[in-house]
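Fold these two proteins, one after the other.
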Amino acid sequence: MTLIEREDKACAYIDSIADKLKSLGTYLHEHPELGQEEHKAVQYISQFLEAHRFSVQVGLTDYDELRTALRGDYCTDRPYKIAFLGEYDALPKLGHGCGHNLIAMMSVGASLAFSKSAPTEWGTTFFGCPAEETIGGKVYMADAGLFKGYEGALIIHPGGENEIGGTSLATHPLEVTFYGRSCHIASLTDSGINALDCAVDLYQSIKVMKSSVFPKGAVVGAIFTSAGSAPNIVTDHATLRMTVRGATVSDLETIILPAIKQEAQRIAACYGATVEMHHYEPLFKDMRQDERLLSLFQQVMTEFGEVPRILPDDEADGSTDVGNVSYEIPTAQPTLNIGKHLEEHTLEFACAAGSEFGLAQAIKGAKIMAVVALRYAVSFEG
């Protein structure tokens, strides 16, 4: 079978199950579930894959964080295999305001189409990856080695325009709590130790470090989650919760975070306070887009009439746990338009993710991924 014949077979197969795929996307859209609570999504997708001769496993590891993860395998005992990454968690109050229902739909469709048309030495896996919006299921999946042995991983994200390339920011959220000693604010015998003063000083220091210490691309956002109980009592504990991001894991883990932690220790010592720090979410690594896969996506998206804007290698406006996958195996994540100039995490985006146009674009996205995977497989040289 020629490559063109394989591509035609894959696209025809997606057309043959298009209504079922749209029903999947619609069901997820109408039953939004938060991260680690995606039980209906897991059941629906599992049954869908099993009906198409995929073997399905739910849970995957002993990690409680992966209780709503799943994998659907087809002939993964073959010499080569490729992974399609699905997401299905929703946002509080917005439902599928990031379009994860369409991501699942596209990756399921591409997995099935690839299984029907791939060279005989290739197998495939659909990975259902939970909680991208919160703890990052792919972080734990990568740590467990679930992506090892795959020749590549593909995923398409819906968006407000067509894009390929760019990167994502590494992020490792940090919580800092200062502990002082309370007393009455007007006491003549005890001035106490004001933990809020420590937290405010750290907040101000970080603003200065952004321009003088941190490397290019650093982003730190902070809020006070504990700042005292009454204005006439010296605050005995105060907490800053921060999203801390860098252009690369190296920048984040060796420069930005150590500088923040060192400054927190210095401030605590100056006031006679103590400080505790912990990461309340895991490390999301920066995205390393694979050039071979990006080139194929550019070709295929253009052939399907979705000419992508090419992003500079260092352009990043967010973070994703797909970055952790990209540190393990060749990975690419382009963006496919489901409505011009839409912004993710909005009500308008959630509506587009359930619209007829959004579903039709997801059918096209499944075809694009399947064709990219086939061209990658046929030309693969290790």
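Now the second one:
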Amino acid sequence: MSNINKYELREPQLEAEIYYLTEQEGGRKTAVNNGYRGQFYYNGKDWDAPQQFIDKETCNLGETVKVYLQTLSTDFHIGHFFVGQEFETREGAKIVGKGKITRIIRPDFNYWDGSTFLKSLDKSIEPYSDANDFLKFRMDLENWLIETEIIKNIEFEMTGNLECMMLIKCKLINKDLQPREVAYKIIECWKTKLTNSNQLYKIEMNTSFNHNKNQSQTDKFVLSFATWHSFFLTGQIIVQR
């Protein structure tokens, strides 16, 4: 009986091809098996993303294998991928594989920014222009952010740029709050308060390590958003220490 694909991901999000380097090329010393969990490295950061091999159980070094990937911190990857995007598989700082995205299975993983959003939007949908609409959205969003109990000093700025119409700048109350807690609070606030609207979002987070306290800290967190119904609004929530 064949053992191919005996390891299966529950919810694969991406399909890719990965070439595993030989030892002479600086790679591993041994072959890679289905279910391998090397670091998934792209856009300058390491992530955890187990691999399900599609057509083999073992990939010898110097070979290419087709894989499914499933990230384990989903919200951090929404809106970041495109077909042909390159990435690396790493073990620590060591590159052991070089990959390329061949298919995006989870729809909200597709890359977007302000420009691509505007190009995809139905031409009949116009930007928010009514001052009362802006005021209501601003008041609601400010209240929702306050309810997270992690931020203060909320400031709003209208940019006049349709790709990013509104900037919401704020500070952390507790500067030692762990990065994942910051991300979770802001993302949940956004997702749960806008369930009646069409929406896109993606996040970027800059962190550093506080050696005195032996923990990671949030330097800057940015949630980019686009929301639309009969009108549309784009912007960013920017949280800094």
